[in-house]
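Much of what follows relies on a compact textual record of a protein's fold. A record is reproduced here so that you can trace the correspondence yourselves:
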Amino acid sequence: MSNVFIPATCADQWAQFLAEPVKQWRTGFSARTLAYSWQEADGFPSEVHSVLSAHEPFHGIKLLLAFPEHQVHLPGGSRPSQNDIWVLARAGANLVSIAVEGKVAEPFGPTLEEWLDGASPGKSARLKFLCGELGLPEELPGAVRYQLLHRSASAVIEAKRFGAPHAVMLVHSFSQTHQWLEDYAAFATLLGVNVAVNRVVSVGRRGGVELHLGWVCGDAKYLSK
């Protein structure tokens, strides 16, 4: 894949990077909603900046670069972890790697039990790698959402690639009823923390960097874009 990127001038240009543009680029769905929210922002969307800045390590955080549908390659198979947005930011003297998962009403993909059904050696190798990056035991509850594992690992992997001491897995949810928050909370419990809406929490050193989890409630006006 080329390392040359062309800046987007409008949100609709984000659609070309989706796996299934016709299916996914729809009003009220996460891909389009997230794109308009971030494209129209001056840096971070205001609610994202507010929540990140309230977390002590990220006071005064500034967005440097944002990459829609950013792929992070993982061992064990050909499919990468495709982040809805990957952000490189700066907070004081420190770089911050942020893997953004956009949501409206969609779940966090298959559970680990579903994903491992008839697992190939490649899937087993991938799970071992992800657990190693996140400091988790390989025997995990089957109800854990696989997407949260690889999205969090993506933030850690890219933090190491760019020399960032901090990594964030950030859910930017436009569900005004916080759908699927319980799955996010269950995942956070595995990492030893309790979470809440519009809050970032630190889970300690994982894969050689400081990992943080966050859930931000997005502006409902973008659901109609």
The chain has one domain: 27-224. The longest helix spans residues 146-161.
